[in-house]
Amino acid sequence: MQNIYNSVKSGGLKVAEFLTPVLKESKFQETGVITPEEFVAAGDHLVHHCPSWQWAAGSSDCVRDYLPADKQFLITRNVPCYKRCKQMEYRGELEKVLDSEDPEGGWVDTHHFQESDPTALANTVKDMVLEEAVGESQSDSDAEEAIDMEDFVESGMLEEDTAAVETVQEEQGGSGGEILSTRTYDLNITYDKFYQTPRLWLFGYSESRSALSVDQMYEDFSADHANKTITMEAHPHLPGPPQASVHPCKHASTMKKLLDQIAEGGGELGVHQYLIIFLKFVQAIIPTIEYDFTQNFSL
Fold it and tell me: I want to staple 106 with a disulfide (CB 3.0 to 4.6 A). Which of 70, 99, 226, 238 is the partner?
């Protein structure tokens, strides 16, 4: 049902975007939205400070005339994703404060109330025991005299050594222990004419560079946002399968709140810094995808 709703909503927004006039006058400080020219300025600032990001032209059939032909959207490739979001989920009910009288709060056992299977460790940890064959154990006093290296070489035993390294192939579909392969993502930032804000797009790949399925990509997104704030839609500049997109309906209001907080502290945020800040607040939605931004920012 949620997928049907998302599809209908996406179709309606495409029509609305087509009918929406291009924003000409800056309203960044008043409402948190930006013009296409301000989007390009913010993109140039991002590319300058974060060289992993680059401008892209996209498909010639999808050019937006309100943006420069060679600056249709921003892209960064091969962004690592080392673990799934469920590995980062916080579960407060499993915690116990071990020293409640400590004025600094005491030590916290984060998995105190977690049920554990006594055989789980034995099943997941592989044995690493060096065993000796029965009857072969000898004391130091009974040990044979060490072979002289020159005699060993002259005997020809060195050339007769046929030992080889055995190649072990990983079973496909096996449990694979607790090790997870590193995924990578291509990230794009486009300009959304209807919402008049940037919009983030993501497409994931496995360690072997095969495309991830929709369900696999949702494993790397916050459970509170998957299939809600972040949905699968057609990319406005690239042909191919749908990509994950962070819906921009809250971007302007979030940016406006940040602007107000900065102003209350006596500071000012320039529109050229928009994408640096934008990438910071969308990190909460994709916490395990480690894209790089090199500028620090604090309120």
Answer: 99
Map residue 101 onto helix, strand or coil: coil
Distance (Å, whole) CA 118 – CA 291: 39
Q: In this structure, what token pair is assigned to residue 156?
A: 């020809």
Active site residues: 249
| Per-residue model confidence as pLDDT tens digits over 124-147 | 444 445 455 555 555 555 555 555
Please name the helix (run of DSSP H) or strand (run of DSSP E) that holds residue 261, with its range, or none: helix 251-264
Cα–Cα distance list, 223 to 36, 130, 204, 267, 280 (Å)? 32, 44, 17, 34, 18
**Interatomic CA distance for residues 45 and 276, integer angstroms:** 8
Give CA–CA dist 255/34, Å, rounded: 11
pLDDT tens digits for 84-129? 888 876 555 555 554 455 454 444 454 455 555 555 545 544 444 5
